[in-house]
Amino acid sequence: MTDVAQPDLVRNSWMLNLIDEAKAGRLPTPTFASWLITRACNLKCYYCFASARKKDPDELTTGEAMRVIEDLADTGVFYLSYIGGEPLLRKDIYQLIDYSTDLGIYTGIHTNGMLVREDTVAKLKDVGCQILGVSIDSHDPIVHDRVRGVSGSLVGAKRAVLESVKAGIRCSIRIVVTEDSLPALPDLFNWARDTGVEELIIIPIFMVGRAAGTPDDRRADILGKELFWKGLDVLREVANPLGITVPEEKVACCVGIELNTPDKENHHAGHAFGFERSTGCRVGKFIMNIQPNGDIFSCPFVQHKIGSLRTQSVREIWAHPLLRAAREGDMGCHARSIIHTGRPDVVDPTYNRSTEDLLAELPAGAKPLSLTPIQN
Ligand SMILES: C[S@@+](CC[C@H](N)C(=O)[O-])C[C@H]1O[C@@H](n2cnc3c(N)ncnc32)[C@H](O)[C@@H]1O
Ligand code: SF4
């Protein structure tokens, strides 16, 4: 944690120490949970890793979900992000957010924005939601709506951002870097900043779920990684002159960019350093990935089950040998280990390798090796 300028106030904070401990794989419990609370969705993005569309028949009930929240709180998880599918399609979502914030967990929701209106944001604020994340793929409605499969979806996403900022809920924008979104990054960065958005989350495309099935998925994955780094470089050009840091990310997984510099009144040190600085592969170090039925996947992007909160506790699952191995070694990106070898327990073969070398070695038509498509 020495790569960014930090005011004295935060340089020695417990949060920084915690992040260092997590990165070193020394935490006895996870700090974050990302919960795919429903697979139901009102959009049909061509690349959706969750293949979201219909609700799973075995989704956790409200009571079961509340018991999971209790377990997370007892274990010391302090950040919970409800994703989906579209989390606002779950009727009890406000109740679940209310319960997690009541138990002291910093809670956010990640939405495509279609269902967000002034009253939605007011209700989210009322139940203590701290952050509202919205996905945007481009400023151009033709691009965004084509990616999302429903016309009017950019209007909904932008409305959600504006309502969130107006209501004073921290807002983040999530952008998956593709050939479509790359040209939009500088404009989205400037729009986000001018609008009062607090963070950008930049995500590489993973060729899984509905994104899988190109003629050559492993090649597409490697090119997607390259595109992601290019995206971060493009953003550095606009961010650096403003004193905004775009973190280095050698593994090529999600990166958070804090748009408020530490001198700004609304800069939130805990938020910025706690969440944005959790770079690298988070598997086994920071995060627990919960599925709609309580199954735990090692990584949100690949369907590799390592436990179930219907029958096990968070602590028990955190002791899984795969997560222990991820804590103990620097294995690159766990998702790419699976995508490129079919095995979750080996080092990511694309890690620290040049794109040229990787492409030269790949057989034509290389598919992801062991991903089971979700049936819906
Ligand atoms: C699955 S969505 C769930 C929340 C909400 N429905 C939304 O679209 O923001 C969570 C995030 O994952 C991103 N995403 C979906 N499929 C992806 C993929 N194949 N690779 C990388 N990110 C992906 C989405 O764009 C979104 O920002
Ligand atoms: S990425 Fe989000 S909005 Fe798009 S289909 Fe998946 S869950 Fe729905």
Automatic annotation (TrEMBL):
Known InterPro entries for this protein? 4Fe4S-binding_SPASM_dom, Aldolase_TIM, Radical_SAM_PqqE_MftC-like, rSAM, rSAM_sf
Protein name (record): Radical SAM/SPASM domain-containing protein
Q: Which residues form a coiled coil?
A: none
- Signal peptide (from-to): none
Q: Read off the CDD domains from this record.
A: Radical_SAM (cd01335)
Native source species: Amycolatopsis samaneae
Superkingdom of the source species: Bacteria
The Radical SAM core domain sits at 27-245
